[in-house]
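A further point concerns the way the authors explain their paired sequence and structure data. Since the whole study asks how a given chain folds, the encoding of that fold should be made plain. A single example would do more here than another paragraph of explanation. An entry of this sort, consisting of the sequence and the corresponding backbone structure tokens, reads as follows:

_____
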Amino acid sequence: MTDSEGEARACHCLGFAHYSLGNYREAIRYYEQDLALAKDLKDQLTMARAFCNLGLAFKSLGQYSQALEYQYNFLQITHSLKNVPGKFRAMGNIGDILINMQNMQEAVLLYNQQLKLAKQVRNTLMHFDVLHL
């Protein structure tokens, strides 16, 4: 592990701790550092994780447009990496944000795409998650 990788991991952990405590702005500060380090390292998986976490933190603050932007970045990376569990999670996160934005029709479309993805990979756990929101 390089110093930058260790620093990114520490920023992620600090962000998660603050997020868990409800200190969303402080969590965002650490997740932004995590993202910057991941970009410097060109570490797509860590970038995806940081985008996801930033989206969740902004959602918790009620800043849905910004949350959507981060979740769509998360989705884009997981799609390009062919990371099905990450893509599945991103789709669910986006659907949840759309619900909060009162955009039910678009959320239903996204949840249906999520269910289709789960069926394609024949993952019954993912299938169960979609059906029991």
Observations:
- The CA atoms of residues 30 and 106 lie 31 Å apart.
